[in-house]
Amino acid sequence: MAEPGRPEDDETVELAMDVFGRAVVPEGVAEAEPEDLATALEAVCFSLNRPVTLAEVGSILGRSSAAVAAAAEALATQLRGRGLMLQRHGSELQLVTRPETAWAVQRALQPERPTRLSRPAMETLAIIAYRQPLTRAGVESIRGVNCEAVLDSLERRGLIAEIDRQDTPGRPRLFGTTLRFLQIVGLERIDDLPALGEEHAIDALSAVTGAGADDGQGS
User: Which of 133, 141, 165, 168 has the fewest Cβ atoms within 10 angstroms?
Assistant: First the structure.
């Protein structure tokens, strides 16, 4: 047996660490392709059951945000035609059920029916969705009325949020839609909103939600 402190001991330790490392870390993980990493991403999103960021998942999986983004693209493609979809908004991700399966999920969970948005709220939300980022003044210039109360209501519901400040005197808030908005309208990304064409923004947005809006004038 080698005496303590001899070179043979260092070699033994290195060999043991090498064997242990191969046993703990699956071979080839460092070279994982986006498709392989997508499986791990799906498991993480499913287990956490909440919005996660690319950086957060990267920290969990020991990968860069760019690698996670590539995996997210691969996972979104793999989920086409299935009951789940991966919503992506900026750096946020969340695994959710598709709108087509909402009836089954509702029967299973029996969720409380959400309050319908008023016509003014739908108009304001549609304007922001299609023209974001937009200031309150920008919204009001399009609608022609004061929108402070409506914007406050949409922000409280989590459908819009301040995403930046405009570089002008007073630095007004710039509003944009949120991941919650994507969940409500059932889209993966904001880019998936239907093209306006000859339709008004609210008509296109109503077509996506499939619910329309109340006729009332409240927010």
Answer: 168
How far is Cα 41 from Cα 70, in angstroms, rounded to an integer? 11
pLDDT band at residue 197 under the 50/70/90 scheme: low
Average confidence (pLDDT) over 201-213: 52
Q: What domains are there in the chain, each with its CATH number?
A: 32-110 (1.10.10.10), 119-209 (1.10.10.10)
Q: What pLDDT is attached to residue 171?
A: 94
Tokens representing 45 are 């999103």
d(CA 174, CA 151) in angstroms, rounded, equals 11
The answer to whether 204 and 193 are in contact (CB under 8 A) is yes
Q: How many CB atoms lie within 10 A of CB 115?
A: 8
Residue 110 and residue 36: Cα distance in Å, rounded?
Answer: 35
Q: What is the DSSP string of 101-133?
A: GHHHHHHHH-PPPPPPPBHHHHHHHHHHHHH-S
pLDDT per residue as tens digits for the range 31-44:
456 668 999 999 99
Question: Does the bond joining 133 to the residue before it have cis omega, within 30 degrees of 0?
Answer: yes
Cα–Cα distance, 96 to 87 (Å, whole number): 7
The pLDDT-based confidence of 102 (bands split at 50, 70, 90) is confident
> What does the alpha-carbon distance between residue 41 and residue 21 come to, in Å, rounded to a whole number?
23
Average pLDDT over residues 46-57: 94
